[in-house]
Description:
The complex is a heterodimer.
Chain A: E1 3-5, E2 10-14, E3 19-21, E4 24-26, E5 32-39, E6 46-52, E7 60-61, E8 64-69, E9 74-79, E10 88-96, E11 103-105, E12 109-114
Parallel strand pairs in A: 2-12
Antiparallel strand pairs in A: 1-4, 3-9, 5-6, 5-10, 7-8, 8-9, 10-11, 10-12
Chain B: E1 4-7, E2 10-13, E3 19-25, E4 31-37, E5 43-51, E6 54-57, E7 64-66, E8 76-78, E9 87-94, E10 104-105, E11 109-113
Parallel strand pairs in B: 2-11
Antiparallel strand pairs in B: 1-3, 3-8, 4-5, 4-9, 5-6, 7-8, 9-10, 9-11
Amino acid sequence: AQTVTQSQPEMSVQEAETVTLSCTYDTSESNYYLFWYKQPPSRQMILVIRQEAYKQQNATENRFSVNFQKAAKSFSLKISDSQLGDTAMYFCAFCKTSGTYKYIFGTGTRLKVLA
Amino acid sequence: NAGVTQTPKFRILKIGQSMTLQCTQDMNHNYMYWYRQDPGMGLKLIYYSVGAGITDKGEVPNGYNVSRSTTEDFPLRLELAAPSQTSVYFCASIAIGQATYEQYFGPGTRLTVT
């Protein structure tokens, strides 16, 4: 069975600084996707970034980038130039791309950006 | 496209009452999911569906039932509500054919059972 672990329940960062959120996962699958979702106080789940396991290049989306280490089963999210609007819960998620497509979510990291 | 819509947004139930949470998507997605999110926790899968007429249990199915008679709708039924079912419920969908595997989420339903 797959598991996703986020070991940082809470983090804070000063506005304009850089912060890295950690995620590790366990799987025997070779083909899968990894995601970071943001959940602001509005509760809406918003996709931040995705990474295909077969791609060696780390995904980037504007100020958001990942450090994907497949052998170490690590998938961290780096937020550069943090903004007050980045304050939210961040969830790491795993989905294998064979069989049935069930997602496994981590327990989340609550990020607070300080002015 | 409205995306994934859920009704109601909030609901308070008494112990033992029943209700149906509605979920509709207009993106012709084949997979649909129901999750619950307890305070300070991640999402746990209740049920999912791979297409009309096909449903299967997730991680925490006890106390819930689902049906999928159409591609668009995936209602979640709570029978004999219990305080342990107090949670926020999210519906989500994906389109396998698009190969992005991105889940589209509804806005959630906050349910309190007292």
